[in-house]
Amino acid sequence: MQRICFLLKVKPDRLEEYKRRHADVWPEMRDALSRTGWHNYSLFLREDGLLVGYLETDDFKAAQAGMEREPVNARWQAEMGDFFEALDGQRPDEAMTPLEPVFFLP
What rounded mean pLDDT belongs to the chain? Predict the structure, then answer.
């Protein structure tokens, strides 16, 4: 099982709306994430907009590829892309660069 952690930056003026959108994630998006291997997926947001994402999966590249094939993902990414800083032309899901794990206490 891979543990994946990534960072993104939410625009400060979009923080409240970002939180509202995640209070009620579309059921079809939740189903697609589960079906494609995203487990224990969590997002943590600091007041300055730093977003920390965490998930567990058997194969992160396969999980990303699975979501790429899900029609709901394209809709979600299109709606959420403007919430983030410094995506450099990428969608939010493409900008999820895993951090290097350095310690784990089982």
Answer: 94
